[in-house]
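Troubleshooting: if your tokenizer reports a length mismatch, compare against these two reference records.
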Amino acid sequence: MIPAFLIRAAIDYVRHSKALSDSNPYSRCEEAVQAATGLAKDKLGDFDESLLEIAVATNYWEEFFHAEDPLADEKDWREGLVKRSSNYDNFDAWQTWFKDSYKQVYRENNIWTSVLMTAWAHTHQYQLNYSDNKWSFVPSRSYLPTSQIWKLEPHLETIQEVILDCWYKELRAYFELGFRIETRSIPYFGKVECLNFDTTENIVHWPARAHKMHNEKIDLGKLVADIVFPVSDSWYRHLDNMIFAHEHLDVSALINRTSYVFESKRHLLELSVENEPAKARRKASAEGWLVEEVEEETADVAS
């Protein structure tokens, strides 16, 4: 089972549990951590419980702000958090105000940290991220609604297998061109839309003839997410309507789309061996390959 799917499933179960209907969002987050921990022990074997708690907390509060079917108390909490956090341009000021105003209930733990950081991120167009043992804010780009996750579930294993097979073919093609791809596992439970392909780093080592000083990273998780769950005009991700025409998986369409996206990245890197990045991008685009817009890097703004 994909760890990220396990986490979102646990959160959805707890949010709709009749036994917890008289609870509150904070208590349900605690219950979600317990539910996900139980599932992880059964499905994942060895795992970092502290990292899992952080992953569940960040996913829970992100769902809290984007839920398609918010509960009554979630609406009240959401309204209050949005109203108050939007008054502060600086996260530290917001955190200080909240701690002082709610010192009777606030505790220094991962759940409250996630509440405050996700609220501030939501009102300032960021997303909360936790990696390398630190919290940070990254530009907000998209969100995968829970309803789309359940539509994916029956096809999850098949899609993973197809994409993994396409990736293995790409690795062989890179090798034949003189590239070397180094794969490193990272302590991260990932996002559902990335289908577990974001739990590793894929570092491209250039052929000797390239004379490149810096290695390239392939964001395989994002490539996969954009294939299966492209971002719609509404900013939310939805199952691709060609791959899932009439809600049935078209494996041929999945293979064709995945191959095109993966090959586009490889051809761009191949052209970059002897060309400056801008020129390589122009050539790749002229040849009909997919070329993404260059995104400006944004510095983390969390302390």
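Reference record two:
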Amino acid sequence: MLAVEFLLLTFAVHVTRLGPQLNQNAEDILAMQVDNRSRYLQSIFHDAQELTSLSDTINGLTQQLLDEGEISLSTLDSSSDAAYPLLEAAAQELISTLRIKSVTGVFLILNTHDRISGSRTAACPPSTCGILTRMPLPPSATPT
């Protein structure tokens, strides 16, 4: 009796092509998981790279310091002392972004020159923000 049931089951599996269908289903599920993981990682990278609000805040701080006469575009990139008021004002925003975003560093570039012609220009934004490292620290490298 057991042999007959086994033969019927084997026959049914071969006739209905259950084995290849299971393999195809497994491949489809794996492809969906890879696609979902890819989209998830892309969204994390996109969120980490989105610094528009930080850039706008630092540009606003720069304009405020320019209006108050605390900094000057003509001397901003000449020494650390000339840039200190801006760096001090922007430090809290940079640190906050570093803690909120999944990054290991942020940087601030003070740019008062037209990079193409080399001339100083007010049309060039005085500050540019970016991400130094886009990958989060592994848990084993997190400081304690």
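Descriptive notes for reference record two:
- The chain is about 60% helix and 10% strand.
- The CA atoms of residues 52 and 111 lie 17 Å apart.
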